[in-house]
Amino acid sequence: MSTPETSRFVRLRVELVLEVDDAEAVTGAALARIAEDDEMPGTERAHAEDAVTEDTAEALAYLVDPFDLVGDVPGIELQQASWSSELIDYDPDAPDWDLGEDDDGDDGDDGEDGEESPVR
After folding, report:
1. How far is CA 101 from CA 83, 92, 96, 106, 108, in A?
2. Over pLDDT 90: what percentage of the chain?
3. Structure confidence at residue 35 as a pLDDT band (50, 70, 90)
4. d(CA 56, CA 87)
5. How many other CB atoms are found less than 10 A from the CB of residue 97?
6. H or E element that contains 44
7. Does the model's pTM come out above 0.85?
8. Where are the domains of the chain?
């Protein structure tokens, strides 16, 4: 008797909304991270420094690393990661703002009454 095989690969989607209270601190931390990277070529370093200086969202992208989220989880190996950041208009009370929305149409609704399950 054989057991049907399931994929060993899992796509983990995480969406965060962050409020930047001190853009200079974020930019400074990103510049420090770039300066510490001894393997980054000079031309790439100059481009990275310009990007994080001009855009706080870009600076944040230099500071957030998906590997940091899962690097210590036993039994897994990160195969691929991508992430992006952008400045947004955020109104948590707006009816069209739903953190549970994603590209495949799954709205996070676990019930039949139209109510979204609370975050635990």
Report:
1. 17, 14, 10, 7, 7
2. 49
3. very high
4. 8
5. 13
6. helix 42-54
7. no
8. 23-70
